[in-house]
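Run log // design_07
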C-alpha cells in the first residue's frame, strides 16, 4: 500500500487543479428526525456455530411451519451478522434432490441463542406426482432464448421446483445477451410439462441519473512500483476501469481534469462514492463491503448509453443525454451498488415484478443513506434520485418523498406487480422517507391514509431496513417487507419501548401496505387482567397451534379490554397470541412469547372477531387458558 499523502496518514488522491482537503466527517448523531438509538454495548452476537446450531434445533422442532414434505432437505446457505448482536441464518431447500425456487427461508437468532424471527416464502407443501419432465431440456432452452432479443449464450437447463403458488416442476435457464440495446442476464423458468414461461428475472439492473464532479476529494488507490492505479488498497474489490476492463493508471496520484466528459474524472467520482458507501455500510449497518464478505464490486466508466447498471459482477456507468456529464454522482453509484447488496442478501434478486421494484427502491435507499453519510456540501443529502443533472430536461428521475411527482405510485396496491420496475419502487421509497423523516418534514410527504407519521432518522431507518433485508426471501413482496421490518425493529429496539416499532408500522399503514398474518406485535403483551370469565383447556403438541375457543373465534361486539392468562407444564415453552380476523385471514394483534408455559396478554380491542392461538414452541402437554372479553 502506498502512503504518499498530503498528511501522511492515508493515500490521498487529488483531482487535478484542486487542493486535497478533508471532507467533514459524518455526524455521530443521526441526520434528520431523531429517535433513540439502540444500546449496542453488550449486544455481542453468538458465534456462527451457536447460531447455526440454534437454527438447526428450531427447524427440527418446527418443520410444519416451513411446509415440509417427507422429501424435503434443508441446507444452511450462510450466516450474516446484523446489528445489535442478531445473526441471520439462511436456508435453501431441495425436493427429491432438486433445488426449490421459493423454498428458502431465514431465521433470526438473538445474542442469547434464541430464534426471534423467521421469514419464509413457500406457501404449501410440495407434492409432485413425478419429477420426470415431459418437455425436453433442449426445448426449454429454446423457449428461454426467445425471451432475449440478441442471445450471446444460454446455459444448460437445470431441473428445479418452483414453489411460488402451486409447486411446479420447471426448467431453469440463464440467457445472456442484449434486449433493446441493453445488456441482460435473464434467468427463465419454464414449465417442464407444458413449456410455458412461469417466471423470469434479470440480474442486470438498470439505473439512470446524472454525474456530478466532486472537487478536491480524496479516494483510495494503490501504488505498484512507480505506477499508481485506481484500485483501492484498503477496500477490497473497489476499482475503476474503462469499458475494456483496464484499470486506470498514472505516474502520479493526481487524477482527472475536472471535465464532465473526461472518463478519468468520472472514475474519481465513482471511487469517492463507493468509498463513502463502503464506509457507511461498516459504520452504520455493520456490513463488511458491498457483498457482505469484505469485498465490493469493480466499476467501469464510458458506457455508450444514457444509463448505468449492475450486472451481478460489476457496476457500469454511462453519460447524460446531452453527453456533458458522466453518470457518477453519489446517489447513482450507491444505487447501483445497492443492487449488489440486494443480490448478496438472502433471497438474492429472484422474484417477480414486485420484487424488481423493491430492488430498485433498495438502490434509491442506499443512495440516500450514502449521501447522508458523505455529508458533502457540494451534494447535500436529499431524497431525490439523479438531482445533480437534468437527465432529459425534467429534473430528478424519482422523488422518494412523493413519487407521484413523476407519475409513480405513492401507495401500494395489488396492481404494483404490473408496474414498470422503476415506477414500482414508489411505495417502498415513500415508506422509507416517512420512516426516516416523517410526513411533516421538509419537504412534506403526503400519506395514503391521511395520517401523520413521525420519523426516526435516516440512520435508524437504514438499520431497520438493512436488518429486514437479512430476512429477505425469494419473491419478496411489500407485505413480507412489512413483517421483516417490524421483526427487525423489535429485535433492534426491544419490545418494552415500542416507539420505533410503532413508527415502522405507521409508515407502512401510510403507504397502504396492510397488516399481515403473523406479523410481530409490541407493547400489548404481558401483565394480564382478571382472566376469570372463561376457562379453556387443551393439549399442545410441539410445533403446532391450538385455537381457543375454536378456529372460527368469538365475536366481540363492543370495544374494551381482552385479557388472557395461559399456564402449562414445567419444562414446556408455550407462546400465546391473540388473533383478529381480517377478511379471510387471521392477524396477530398481541403476543406473549416467554421461555416458559406461563404467558399473559392484555389488549385494548376494537369490535371484531378474535381467537387465541396457543403455540407449543418446544415440548408438549396439557394447558389451561383463562380469558375474558368485553
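design_07 sequence
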Amino acid at each position: 500500500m502506498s502512503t504518499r499523502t498530503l498528511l501522511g496518514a492515508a493515500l490521498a488522491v487529488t483531482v487535478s487543479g484542486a487542493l486535497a482537503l478533508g471532507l467533514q466527517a459524518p455526524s455521530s448523531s443521526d441526520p434528520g428526525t431523531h429517535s433513540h438509538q439502540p444500546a449496542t454495548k453488550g449486544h455481542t452476537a453468538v458465534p456462527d456455530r451457536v447460531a447455526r446450531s440454534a437454527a438447526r434445533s428450531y427447524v427440527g422442532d418446527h418443520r410444519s411451519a416451513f411446509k415440509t414434505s417427507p422429501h424435503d432437505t434443508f441446507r444452511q446457505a450462510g450466516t450474516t451478522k446484523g446489528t445489535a448482536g442478531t445473526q441471520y441464518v439462511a436456508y435453501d431447500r431441495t425436493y427429491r434432490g432438486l433445488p426449490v425456487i421459493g423454498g428458502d427461508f431465514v431465521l433470526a437468532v438473538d445474542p442469547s441463542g434464541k430464534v426471534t424471527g423467521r421469514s419464509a416464502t413457500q406457501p404449501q407443501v410440495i407434492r409432485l406426482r413425478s419429477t420426470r419432465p415431459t418437455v425436453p431440456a433442449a426445448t426449454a432452452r429454446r423457449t428461454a432464448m426467445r425471451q432475449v432479443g440478441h442471445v450471446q449464450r444460454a446455459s444448460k437447463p437445470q431441473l428445479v421446483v418452483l414453489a411460488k403458488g402451486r409447486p411446479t416442476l420447471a426448467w431453469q435457464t440463464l440467457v445472456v445477451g442484449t434486449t433493446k440495446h441493453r445488456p441482460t442476464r435473464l434467468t427463465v423458468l419454464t414449465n417442464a410439462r407444458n413449456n410455458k414461461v412461469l417466471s423470469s428475472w434479470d440480474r442486470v439492473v438498470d439505473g439512470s441519473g446524472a454525474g456530478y464532479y466532486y472537487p478536491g476529494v480524496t479516494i483510495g488507490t494503490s501504488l505498484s512500483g512507480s505506477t499508481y492505479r485506481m484500485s483501492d488498497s484498503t477496500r477490497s474489490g473497489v476499482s475503476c476501469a474503462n469499458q475494456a476492463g483496464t484499470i486506470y493508471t498514472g505516474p502520479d496520484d493526481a487524477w482527472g481534469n475536472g471535465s464532465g466528459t473526461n472518463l478519468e474524472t468520472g472514475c474519481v467520482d465513482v471511487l469517492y462514492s463507493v468509498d463513502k458507501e463502503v464506509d457507511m455500510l461498516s459504520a452504520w449497518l455493520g456490513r463488511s463491503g458491498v457483498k457482505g464478505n469484505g469485498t465490493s464490486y469493480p466499476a467501469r466508466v464510458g458506457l455508450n448509453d444514457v444509463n448505468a447498471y449492475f450486472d451481478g459482477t460489476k457496476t457500469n456507468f454511462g453519460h447524460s443525454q446531452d453527453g456533458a456529464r458522466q453518470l457518477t454522482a453519489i446517489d447513482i453509484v450507491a444505487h447501483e451498488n445497492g443492487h449488489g447488496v440486494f443480490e448478496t442478501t438472502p433471497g438474492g434478486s429472484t422474484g417477480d415484478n414486485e420484487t424488481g421494484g423493491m430492488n430498485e427502491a433498495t438502490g434509491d435507499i442506499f443512495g440516500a443513506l450514502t449521501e447522508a453519510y458523505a455529508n458533502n456540501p457540494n451534494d447535500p443529502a436529499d431524497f431525490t434520485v439523479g438531482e445533480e443533472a437534468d437527465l432529459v430536461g425534467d429534473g430528478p428521475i424519482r422523488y422518494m418523498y412523493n413519487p407521484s411527482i413523476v407519475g409513480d405510485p405513492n401507495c401500494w396496491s395489488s396492481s404494483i406487480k404490473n408496474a414498470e420496475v422503476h415506477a414500482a419502487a414508489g411505495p417502498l421509497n415513500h415508506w422509507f422517507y416517512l420512516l426516516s423523516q416523517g410526513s411533516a418534514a421538509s419537504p412534506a410527504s403526503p400519506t395514503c391514509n391521511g395520517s401523520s407519521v413521525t420519523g426516526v432518522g435516516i440512520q435508524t431507518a437504514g438499520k431497520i431496513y438493512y436488518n429486514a433485508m437479512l430476512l429477505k426471501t425469494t419473491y419478496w413482496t411489500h407485505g413480507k417487507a412489512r413483517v421483516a421490518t417490524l421483526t427487525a425493529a423489535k429485535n433492534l429496539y426491544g419490545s418494552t419501548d415500542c416507539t420505533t416499532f410503532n413508527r415502522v408500522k405507521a409508515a407502512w399503514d401510510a403507504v397502504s401496505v396492510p397488516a399481515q398474518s403473523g406479523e410481530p406485535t409490541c407493547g400489548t403483551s404481558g401483565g394480564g387482567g382478571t382472566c376469570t370469565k372463561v376457562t379453556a383447556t387443551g393439549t399442545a403438541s410441539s410445533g403446532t397451534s391450538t385455537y381457543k375457543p375454536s378456529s372460527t373465534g368469538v365475536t366481540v361486539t363492543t370495544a374494551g379490554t381482552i385479557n388472557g392468562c395461559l399456564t402449562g407444564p414445567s419444562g414446556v415453552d408455550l407462546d400465546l397470541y391473540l388473533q383478529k380476523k381480517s377478511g379471510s385471514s387471521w392477524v396477530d394483534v398481541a403476543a406473549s412469547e416467554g421461555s416458559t408455559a406461563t404467558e399473559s396478554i392484555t389488549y385494548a380491542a376494537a369490535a371484531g372477531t378474535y381467537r387465541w392461538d396457543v403455540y407449543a414452541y418446544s415440548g408438549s402437554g396439557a394447558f389451561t387458558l383463562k380469558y375474558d372479553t368485553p
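The first helix runs from residue 48 to 61.
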